[in-house]
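Lecture notes, unit on protein representations.

Consider one protein chain, 106 amino acids long.
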Amino acid sequence: MAMLKRSAALFILGFSLISSPVGVADEPAKSTCESRTAVLDFLSTRYSEAPIAMGMSKDGGVVEILTSGPGSTFTIIVTMPNGLTCMVAAGDSWESLTPRVSARRI
C-alpha cells in the first residue's frame, strides 16, 4: 500500500511540475517547464535524486534519468536546446540493469 501511495504522490508531482514552474506553486502557471538547476534542486532536496544516465535525443534535447538508489524513486527529465527542463516521467522501485555487451554494433 505504501508503494501505491508513493506512486500516486510522484504521479501528482509530475503533473504539478508540468503545470507550474518548480518552486512557485502558489503563482499562476507561466510555463510548463523550468530551468534545469531549479528542477535538479527540487528533485535533490525533495527526493534525494541525482542523475545516473543521460543521452541526446534526435531533436537536440538532453534526456536524463535521476534516482535516489535501488528500489527507490526515479525521474526522467528532458532539457531542450532553449534551456528549459521538463519532467516527463516519475515513479518508484528503480532497478539498474547490467548492460549487455553486444559483439556487433549497429
